[in-house]
Amino acid sequence: MYELLKTEGTARRAQFHTVHGTVQTPAFMNVGTSAAIKGGISSYDLVDLKCQVELCNTYHLHVRPGDELIYRRGGLHRFMGWERPILTDSGGFQVFSLAKLRKIKEEGVTFHSHVDGRKIFMSPEVSMQIQSHLGSTIAMAFDECVENPAPYAYSKASCERTTRWLARCKAEMDRLNSLPETINPHQMLFGINQGCTFDDLRIEHMKAIRELDLDGYAIGGLAVGEPKEEMYHIIEVVEPYMPKDKIRYLMGVGTPGNIIEAVARGVDLFDCVMPSRNARHGHLNTWQGIINLNNAKYAEDDRPIDETCDCPTCRHHSRAYIRHLLKANEMLGMRLAVMHNLYFYNTLMERIREALDEGRFAQFRAQYADLLDTRI
């Protein structure tokens, strides 16, 4: 259940109540694709890093180790040792991004696994069944991810199919949640707004899917290479048509600046692989901008990554040491860097919430939206 606490302009400060705990929003979901954050971060680490929600990947877990195996282990929470909320994506994005050979029909999509090449069929019903096996807090609807830019006629037909698929997802989710053997009978379902960068398609699709009265609504199909101004424009176009009493999730976004700007436009929830992926390559977030630890100037720099940060990495280690570890391909280097970036993102969301609580989000946005995305 979404509980709106206050607003500042279009920005929203809220609480999202789930069977696995309450999420303070706006919030950033840390991405643990295969039930782990890349970089050697455990579920116990995530608690210390202020993570509220972890995002896991339906497609990857279906392929390996298999959702039925996880079901026999008692579901994803028990399997991972993580007690807080988990959102599982539907597998749709991976089907369209990883599968070289795929055939889309009204029933669903047939494609080949990127791991072993075996043929897999994914449909709205199959996606819901897999996510029910995983027992996640929030399941995402199975949708078609269309490449940007796409022809208008194809985008329109795809939106209509995604709406039909969403109705099937809801029916199947309702059925699964009523079964006595279901791990999480309180599993929530979020629908996904599509329509590429066509304003009218985005609006019509949002109007159609809000009729299904789901637990939350996501904006999908953005952050795939289009200019950030285009992404902000689409959020502004869609936002007035999104239910005010439901949580809003911008999928796959993004940089700290993207997040601040999307919060200003009414978004509550975010996810992105960027903080962990960038960290593994030495690109680290600070409150002064982004540093690249690979640069020679940090070889003898005894300061922490960010002198204002109190994450475990910054409390104990220097830039020089972490740079050495990364250069020597020591796993600890990646782990320490990823811990810092995740802590930074979760602290960013904390500070956004504080600014909203105190009615000074506009000043916070003016101070940090551009600065945090600047490369030092």
Automatic annotation (TrEMBL):
GO biological process: tRNA queuosine(34) biosynthetic process
Binding site for substrate: 89-93, 143, 194, 221
Active site: 89, 271
One matching Pfam family: TGT
CC per GO annotation: cytosol
UniProt key word Zinc: yes
EC numbers: 2.4.2.29
GO molecular function: metal ion binding; tRNA-guanosine(34) queuine transglycosylase activity
Cofactor(s) the protein needs: Zn(2+)
Catalyzed chemical reaction(s): 7-aminomethyl-7-carbaguanine + guanosine(34) in tRNA = 7-aminomethyl-7-carbaguanosine(34) in tRNA + guanine
Enzyme class: transferase
Keyword annotations from UniProtKB, A to Z: Glycosyltransferase, Metal-binding, Queuosine biosynthesis, Transferase, tRNA processing, Zinc
Known pathway: tRNA modification; tRNA-queuosine biosynthesis
Residues binding Zn(2+), per UniProt: 309, 311, 314, 340
Annotated region described as RNA binding, given as residue ranges: 252-258
SUPFAM superfamilies: tRNA-guanine transglycosylase
Domain tRNA-guanine(15) transglycosylase-like positions: 11-369
Family under the similarity heading: Belongs to the queuine tRNA-ribosyltransferase family.
Record HAMAP family: Q_tRNA_Tgt
Role, per record: Catalyzes the base-exchange of a guanine (G) residue with the queuine precursor 7-aminomethyl-7-deazaguanine (PreQ1) at position 34 (anticodon wobble position) in tRNAs with GU(N) anticodons (tRNA-Asp, -Asn, -His and -Tyr). Catalysis occurs through a double-displacement mechanism. The nucleophile active site attacks the C1' of nucleotide 34 to detach the guanine base from the RNA, forming a covalent enzyme-RNA intermediate. The proton acceptor active site deprotonates the incoming PreQ1, allowing a nucleophilic attack on the C1' of the ribose to form the product.
Subunit structure: Homodimer. Within each dimer, one monomer is responsible for RNA recognition and catalysis, while the other monomer binds to the replacement base PreQ1.
Name of the protein this chain belongs to: Queuine tRNA-ribosyltransferase
UniProt lineage: Bacteria, Bacillati, Bacillota, Clostridia, Eubacteriales
